[in-house]
């Protein structure tokens, strides 16, 4: 077997699709069922969780480095867009939103954040809508915070400012119509 180059180094921020942004805290070698495995040890501070991912499985589970600046700009532009609200049952939409969040794709997460955002002058969200919105917004904010080297609350405020500005534009359109 040829030795495969490691994608991530200790200290790198990485995105694990189902859990969001974590940091590689060490590389470990462990013997499991007689097989020697190299593992990335990831730490997710917000969840207070440690995850071990075999280095040879990192790519197949979708683990990736932080997004490029171009992808982050695309995600921020997505937030400025008009929310798309489908008229399907909530349970089906909720499944689609969860799938987008767990995909780890930044632009898809931004779409969920945009579509579920409610400005102060808009009707209340249901509990489950609010939960999914917060999960998407938090996931987006953590990646933005890691990329811009700011804390998560500042990143989240930046996202909410963009969403409020967009909501003001699109809600004004509705009031005129």
From TrEMBL:
Question: Domain of life here?
Answer: Bacteria
- Pfam families from the entry? CarD_C, CarD_TRCF_RID
Name the Gene Ontology biological process terms: rRNA transcription
Q: Which Gene3D superfamilies match?
A: 2.40.10.170, CarD-like, C-terminal domain
Q: Indicate what this protein is called per its UniProt record.
A: CarD family transcriptional regulator
Q: Which InterPro entries match?
A: CarD-like/TRCF_RID (IPR003711), CarD-like/TRCF_RID_sf (IPR036101), CarD-like_C (IPR042215), CarD-like_regulator (IPR052531), CarD_C (IPR048792)
Which parts of the sequence belong to the CarD-like/TRCF RNAP-interacting domain?
7-117
């Amino acid at each position: 077997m040829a030795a495969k180059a490691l994608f991530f180094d200790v200290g790198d921020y990485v995105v694990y699709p189902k859990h969001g942004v974590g940091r590689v805290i060490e590389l470990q070698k462990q013997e499991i069922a007689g097989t020697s495995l190299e593992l990335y040890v990831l730490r997710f501070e917000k969840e207070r969780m440690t995850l071990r991912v075999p280095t040879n499985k990192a790519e197949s589970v979708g683990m990736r480095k932080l997004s490029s600046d171009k992808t982050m700009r695309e995600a921020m532009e997505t937030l400025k867009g008009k929310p798309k609200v489908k008229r399907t049952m909530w349970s089906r939409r909720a499944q689609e939103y969860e799938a987008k969040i767990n995909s780890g794709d930044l632009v898809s997460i931004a779409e969920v954040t945009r579509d579920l955002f409610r400005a102060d002058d808009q009707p209340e969200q249901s509990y489950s809508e609010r939960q999914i919105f917060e999960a998407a917004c938090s996931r987006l904010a953590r990646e933005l915070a890691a990329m811009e080297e700011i804390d998560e609350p500042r990143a989240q405020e930046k996202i909410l400012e963009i969403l409020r500005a967009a909501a003001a534009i699109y809600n004004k359109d509705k009031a005129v119509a």
